[in-house]
Amino acid sequence: MRFAVGVLFGVTTQLVFLLTVRELFAFLRGQIPARAGSLWWDVFLAAQFALPHSWLLLPSTRKWLSRWIAAPFYGLVFCLATCASLFVTFAYWRTSEVELREVSPQARWLIDVGFFGSWIALFYSLHLSGLGYQTGLTPWWLWVRGKPQPRRGFELRGAYRFMRHPIYASFLGLIWFTPTMTLDHAILTGLWTVYILAGSHLKNERWLISSATPTGSTRLGYRDSESQSGEPVGVSPRTVLVCNSSGA
Fold this sequence. Notes:
Layout: H1 2-28, H2 40-57, H3 59-65, H4 71-92, E1 99-102, H5 108-129, H6 131-134, H7 137-144, E2 152-155, H8 166-176, E3 180-182, H9 183-210, H10 217-229, E4 240-243
Antiparallel strand pairs: 1-3, 2-4
């Protein structure tokens, strides 16, 4: 019975993730019903996505929740919590008719190229970092097959040779490449941009903690590449990081 519940939970989480991606695409393209109301509600909705997302990624939070959530399921819980907060945003978002910027029809294709290119870059970056870890699929699938949970290894390759956070950079493209910047979209873009910039710094700190080894070699290698390249782009392609198995 416990195994069946675990399997069902994993399958459900992956289906919810796919549905969330579809709804996020529509939301960012402005394909949502017009809802009048106070835009302070949008400020709250944008923040309620960022805060629990960051809280679940804290090592102290993971350690505390591990008393109730087994390691193979933590990624699923993280993914499901992220999807749930996004669905709350989709359902209660207030729209505005105030337009701060509108791209001319002749230049709209540039915005479309940037938007769809950002989606391609996002999934490419997720593939490099391990999409299965972002959604909890990989640890859960190992549990289903009765395999041990290995310590997650991450080699800097592809886009990671040139920038430290291609996932975050791609997501910035999703929220900035919009043909019509309405006031409500500007609130979303501004708050999520601040969150992404802050999140990139916090992720650097988590990497330094989780990549530490008994000899300190991996951690020192990361610090060396960081000092040589500076923030936020450029890391040594030879550096290998060992990370935990939670999401982004």
